[in-house]
Amino acid sequence: MVAEALQYVSNHLDTIMTGLTMAVVGISVYEARDGFFLFNGDFQGKYGALLIFVGTLFGASLITPMVSNMWEQSLPHIPPGQLLGTILVLGMLGVNKAAEWNFFDIKSLPVYGLGVVLIANPELIHTVA
Questions:
Q1: CB 80 within 8 A of CB 125
Q2: Residues 11, 70: one domain?
Q3: 51-60 exposure pattern, b = at least 16 Cβ within 10 A, e = fewer
Q4: Could you tell me the strand order of the sheet in which 42-43 lies?
């Protein structure tokens, strides 16, 4: 079962990385919560929010194929350690942004640090495995 899951991830890694990248980009554009819509530091009314929302969807649909193509062409040249490091950094950024947590708190810094170490020294993953 684990081997099948890893094979699935391997077969769809470009799609997974595209989704992760687009999620980080998407949650950086605006913030919507119960009762407000915030864009570029300003509160928006319903019509402004609608335009921003639809514009973001349109923009995301335009850049997603480019991001996907970038990952598809880059992945064969990225060592597994660098890929894991990238996933850790992007994932932590996304979680912190989505939950409105501090980006540089004591729990996030080790994840960023490990990600940066793996990006800089991808062969370290082989010493652990």
A1: yes
A2: yes
A3: ebbeeeeeee
A4: 30-33, 36-39, 42-43
Residue type, 101: W
User: Contact at 8 Å (CB) between 36 and 70?
Assistant: no
Q: Domain span at residue 7?
A: 1-77
- Within this chain, do residues 4 and 21 fall inside the same structural domain, yes or no? yes
- Asked whether residue 85 falls in the same domain as residue 116, the answer is yes
CA atoms within 13 A on the CB side of 68: 10
Structural domain tally of the chain? 2
Q: What is the pTM of this model?
A: 0.70
- Does residue 70 sit in the same domain as residue 88? no
Gap between the Cα atoms of 32 and 59, Å rounded: 18
Please indicate, yes or no, whether residues 93 and 70 belong to a single structural domain of this protein.
no
How many other β-carbons are positioned within 10 Å of the β-carbon of residue 21? 19
d(CA 125, CA 57): 37
pLDDT by residue (tens digit) across 59-108? 889 999 999 999 999 988 888 888 889 889 988 988 888 788 889 999 99
